[in-house]
Amino acid sequence: MSNGIVVRVSRRIGRRGASLAFVGLLSLAIAASLAFAPADQRATPGYVALASVAPLAVWACAWCVIGGLCLVQTFMRSDRVAFAAATALLVLYGLVYLFSTFTGVNPRGWVGGAVWLAFGGWIALIATWPEAVSVHSLPGAGAAAIVVADASGIIMSWNPQAAALFGWSTDEAVGRPLTLLMPDRFRDQHTAGLARVRASDRSELAGRIIPLVGLRRDGSEFPIALTVNAWHSDDGITYTGVIRPMRGGGSARGE
């Protein structure tokens, strides 16, 4: 889907980012509750159990660091470190509470332990979510053909407009390479363009309308206008192309 094109690997907040922002703010609130807890609260079994492992100031610092990391990586392309760190601290918190039940420091610590461990499991589950891409928010989407492909250039999604434009049904197109949609003379450039995106993450033409040549199922060529974006997650890069036919040519050669 590229004629020597290098696209921008973008990161929107999305549902993963929103969840990470929530965890970040909650972590900062927990840090404040530990750092500024009054004396009577510090004497409660839960706080005593935590203090038996490390000073409350150390716990507060840990939560503050995790909170800041989560908020920073909310806006970054990769959020793996933040999710892993938050999950680890939540699990550690839960284990401390569970252990305090057996030592007698906090007889009902198993309740808090179960809650913290469940919270950690929830964060670990969110970390496995792929980031959803809304094609309706892409430049020029409208009723255009929308093609979604993975990092290797294999078609993952194919809307009805794409089927009408190129002549391949969804079942026929999904799972096949993007080279299906372009003349032979452009395929090497396409492969090289994908490789550059994976290697550099650099952007030159992201969001711009790019004139190219498409290939229909019947072998005929036609001019198209392509807007391409790439979305990065921990599972890899997903390419989304918005394609419209251009007027003024039946079988343009595009050379």
What's the layout of helices and strands?
Blueprint: E1 9-10, H1 14-35, H2 39-42, H3 45-53, H4 56-73, H5 80-103, H6 109-126, E2 145-149, E3 155-158, H7 160-166, H8 170-173, H9 187-200, E4 210-215, E5 221-233, E6 236-245
Parallel strand pairs: 1-5
Antiparallel strand pairs: 2-3, 2-6, 4-5, 5-6
Beta strands, count: 6
Terminal residue distance = 16 Å
Give the DSSP E fraction (strand runs of 2 or more residues).
15-25%
- Structural class, from secondary structure content? alpha+beta
| Helix run count | 9
Unreliable stretches covering 5 or more consecutive residues = 1-11, 132-141, 249-255
Mean pLDDT across the residues is 81
Label the overall shape.
elongated
| Helix-strand topology string | EHHHHHHEEHHHEEE
- Quickly count the domains: 2
The value of Rg in angstroms is: 25 Å
Question: For the report, how would you describe the main beta sheet?
Answer: 6 strands, mixed
Share of helix, binned: 40-55%
Overview of the molecule:
This protein is an alpha+beta fold and 255 residues long. The protein folds into two domains: 113 residues; 111 residues, PAS domain (Beta-Lactamase, 2-Layer Sandwich), CATH 3.30.450. Helices cover 47% and strands 16% of the residues. The chain has nine helices and six strands, in the order E-H-H-H-H-H-H-E-E-H-H-H-E-E-E. Strands 1, 2, 3, 4, 5 and 6 form a six-stranded mixed beta sheet that branches. A hairpin with a 5-residue loop joins strand 2 and strand 3. The longest helix is centred in the middle third of the chain and has 24 residues. It is elongated and about 80 Å long.
